[in-house]
Fold this sequence. Notes:
Structural class of chain A: alpha/beta
Strand content of chain A: 25-35%
Strand order of the largest sheet of chain A: 24-23-22-21-18-17-16-25
Largest interface: A-B, 92 and 91 residues
Oligomer: homodimer
Amino acid sequence: MKKILKCESIGLVLVLFFCAALMADSSSGEKEVCATTIESMDTFEWTAKAPGVWSAVIGHPEKVTYLSYAGAPPGIAALSKMPAAAFPIDKQQTRGLIHNNLAIARIPLEPQEKLYGLGLQFQGLNRRGQIYHLRTDHYKSGNERLHAPTPFYISSSGYGIFFNSPHFISIYAGVGNRKDSPNLPVIRDRNTDRQWQSRPESDAVEAFVRADGMEVLVFAGPTMLDVVRRYNLYCGGGCLPPKWGLGFWHRMHTKANDQKVMLEVAEFEKRDFPLDVIGLEPGWHSKSYPCTFEWNEMLFPQPAVFLQKMNTEGIHINLWENPYVSPEAGIYQQIKPLCGSHTVWLGIVPDYTLPQARQILTRQHENEHLALGVSGYKIDEVDGYDFWLWPDHAVFPSGTSAEQMRQTYALQLQKMLFGMFRSRNQRTYSLVRASNAGASAYPFAIYTDHYDHHGFITALVNSSLAGVLYTPEIRSARSSEEWLRRMQSVCFSHMTQLNGWSSNTKPWSFPEVENEVRDIIKLRIRLLPYVYTAFARYHFEGTPPIRPMLLEMGFGDKKDVTDQYMFGDCILVAPMFTGQKSRTVILPKGKWYDFYTGEAAGGGEIITVSPPLSKIPLFVKDGGIVPMIPAVNRISQLPEDVPLEIRHYGRSPATTLLYDDDGETFDYEKGRYCWLRLSAKAKPDGTLNGSVSKHQGPYQSMYHQFNWNFMTQKR
Amino acid sequence: MKKILKCESIGLVLVLFFCAALMADSSSGEKEVCATTIESMDTFEWTAKAPGVWSAVIGHPEKVTYLSYAGAPPGIAALSKMPAAAFPIDKQQTRGLIHNNLAIARIPLEPQEKLYGLGLQFQGLNRRGQIYHLRTDHYKSGNERLHAPTPFYISSSGYGIFFNSPHFISIYAGVGNRKDSPNLPVIRDRNTDRQWQSRPESDAVEAFVRADGMEVLVFAGPTMLDVVRRYNLYCGGGCLPPKWGLGFWHRMHTKANDQKVMLEVAEFEKRDFPLDVIGLEPGWHSKSYPCTFEWNEMLFPQPAVFLQKMNTEGIHINLWENPYVSPEAGIYQQIKPLCGSHTVWLGIVPDYTLPQARQILTRQHENEHLALGVSGYKIDEVDGYDFWLWPDHAVFPSGTSAEQMRQTYALQLQKMLFGMFRSRNQRTYSLVRASNAGASAYPFAIYTDHYDHHGFITALVNSSLAGVLYTPEIRSARSSEEWLRRMQSVCFSHMTQLNGWSSNTKPWSFPEVENEVRDIIKLRIRLLPYVYTAFARYHFEGTPPIRPMLLEMGFGDKKDVTDQYMFGDCILVAPMFTGQKSRTVILPKGKWYDFYTGEAAGGGEIITVSPPLSKIPLFVKDGGIVPMIPAVNRISQLPEDVPLEIRHYGRSPATTLLYDDDGETFDYEKGRYCWLRLSAKAKPDGTLNGSVSKHQGPYQSMYHQFNWNFMTQKR
């Protein structure tokens, strides 16, 4: 028998020696060979990290991981409130190997399992049966080069796996049978057997990174939603944006000056359109691509005055930037020694793993932006497209590999910029062009150039499976129908943004639908208490505010539906796409009601709806309670006493909690928040009666007047 | 000042330590940092390998390279006949670095340079300004996943670079400016400067592999054709197929049995169609996908009898196979311990770097195929498509990495199967689904599924820049026009093959164009002496038989033309595509003539041609001499004395050489060949007179009767 050599990285030189020997034609006879069996792989040793969270390592991973780059402390307290759970898969079959400079993991799969997640995907939901070479990049097509290539998947069997290694990663999701797989499919003859398969299913997920080791994390369920919640909580809990961030965002044309901004704000007011955030695009920099981060004196001669005026009017200013530093920037000389070997658009690339580099940028930003009243950033161009990033062989002064930099640069920037706001006890809601695993706690919405409406909605649906937020921002349209349909979608997303940086569009750019656009934006504003509560659940409980249907009870996981989703606690959104006069909607089990009328819509069935152009189909589950404020044009200027309309759908008694806090600071972390209990109870006559009581927390909510509206009962 | 640390691989642990230290928030002050400058890279030390060929290494590469996998000895003698040449680029600016487990090379570029090559590309010619992450794969789109991802490029400045490292490789071809690039473009402001570029050009090619080192080879010109010749000669010289291989190939439907093959052969004869090779598809195996390599007794009960009959009729039999071994194969148990960890279509994957594994397969093939009269193979499914290959983390018993296996498996198989024929002193002409650098000497034509006629021709044009052969095989068509246009193209390619494995098509499948199809195939047969001589030049001089126009004198390199090409010494082919009634043709400087009529066509200009459906536009350069035989239906049954028609085009005196040998054995390597001198000399009256004389070599050619045909002069 041959002597079996287990090929450890530590023995690599030895292995290479054997290979060379084996390959020489002259060699023969008994040689040491590398073990090629599952049996020869190491069995993972799992350590409990929190209730329902375990970790194991193979080899000797670097100390830095996605979680350490993201740097948000695990929400152990919140996790501890979740039920204890048993280790959800067969430990004996979780295996690892270090071989030829690869860290390899093998996680078993049952035949019926489906897999979800693996990044901000623009196509489909089920990931089983595909191969993913995940890397941060500008999405063009396929499933590999993603703005957020999170190596985290959720199984329909109710557990999740996270390969916590900040590298390019290859994941064979139920593809690639080992010769000794315990469940090898039947081998068939292609010539004669019609059941021959071109892609026989495998009984495992296998993944590798090119590194000396890798950490793998397992998240228990029992439900897929529980898996997602545990993941988000382990990443620090979902972010809680400021209230104003959940209003309407409008990005100016790149060459707009302060006067144009002020005129635009006035035009919004004149036309009675809500407006909470104005985004300034590259033109605000004195030079851009690469950037100076300094105000363009021609366009913004008095930025402090401009910002003060905007803030007084309740308008928040968000600044576009990319991270590549122009030689004309004041920080250039100081930051230059802390930059990588290569440029992007000829700008130098700071190594923000170095505290000195972070200090240089944040000091400049704090003094020249935040001190003036800037509310957040849009971090552009950290997504690659290969051409618009450093090459993968660039050298960084810290020694961090270019690959690792690529996978984590967006995390580094989110952490750094978020940190500036946090140290001022001021929340931000911002944008970022890329992200990765571990980012749940950062209030940054991803945006992309892939301007396909279906793809946008699929990405929105998948974002919750990747622990990131996403805005299907509206930029332009070929018709008023498309304009309105896209506007409806973005009003039911993480961030409601019109981005006119190049198109120079306004909400009223299609006059035929100006009223309908205003209506849908106002509906979004009216839903603020509902949406804000959904984000509070994201923060405190890990429940994403937008969720694929498959996370919804009663929907099942058999259908990979990417064109409808849950928005907040109880609203099902079924966007209409250009050209559609009607569409089908899959309603989960139970009873569902039309959001606008309270009429019964069905349940546990496929219905067809033919809404007018002015309406995006919205359905509320039985007992759904939707708190709404009156429409306002500035969330920051809400009156102190806001009357609350509390809608109830269906005929069942129900209770929900409404979250509130100051909406602007991090004081909620110190307990300064409250949950109100909204209860619809049955009266003796069988009809429902609504009441509101304090559930928890010392904060004095802005809601005092409550008007219950029993949408179904009143019909 | 900071102390600069040059990050060598040998110091990797040290570097990682530094990184960790630098990344800790608590660290500050003076730290060692990795050098990020060109200056800190190593300057390559170049060693002359042959006239006009130099090698350098960075780091400590594995001993195995593409050239060692291919294993053909460099044609030093032939290279020595080429002119000496100076090192063609600035040595001081050729730099290398080992950093973070990457071997990185930097080769300078001048602003005007264009780059060609980088594999069997299906789009375009000029590779400058693109990024290539080359890996062996099934081509779908893009420029990265290629059947032959050869990391070899040719500069318009007349030199070539070959990264001789059998790994996935990333090549930034004039993309990615270092912060200290000597020729950094002007940095512009995107806001205000219209000359701002989204992809500023860089002054270097930078490439890396994930390995401890890399060999880089430089090939001198002075012309681009010289670069290609030196590359091919260094790879052992181009292959010389047997004469029969240059005839007509027909692949049977996968379920055909011996009777059907014999009926098909008879039908070819009855319809007067040439036929030299019959290809048998998966059905000939007793089981396929995975394969047994054993005859299906139902379809071929007496393979020896069948093969003898075919060979007697002058028909050569080519066997399809993929390398994945079925448990039903006789060799299964024996080869199993020598296989990798993973299966492909559930078949095991032999590690053919192991001599024992090669011995098992070749013994079986020799006994059960070659001894019976099989003439060659079609090696399928070595191109990946990720799904149809082992995963990149598979383990092979020799310790060879899965990545290296993927990049070289097609080379290993070509070498192994070619070796069987060679040891019988019997030439083969075969097919392979993938290849890589170093394969010039192997008589295998690549074929692909990407069934786009334009893409096929582009691949054919690019094949010569990758040192591989390619057949734009015909399979099916949506119209008789398409059928004929594709048939015309494949008759002017490396291998004239109709592949009916699935479509069950025959040359006469479109009756409306049966005569035209017969005519073009017969023209291909008639050109045998011309085509065979072109392959002889490939073998002895490295000149590819099919060449992009940019390798042709007088064409220039300004135009990236992929829809016309040179075929042999002097014929320009301009294929017509379905729907075209006319097309433009760019004629190089000089005078060019219509192949069919001898009429002047122009020169140094763009002409428009409107050929009838029956004609593929062909042009011959001034003084072009084209030797042709009469049409025959079996090249192997050519009579002993073949009358030669020698066509001459234009009015200039000219001389060319005609190659001949036995066409079947390797005796030409022992000098048993001849070159005949065909001369058209001016008579006193100014007209031309043709003569033939022996130029070199002891072989007695089959050509004795010479009929000169002065195509232009006679008009």
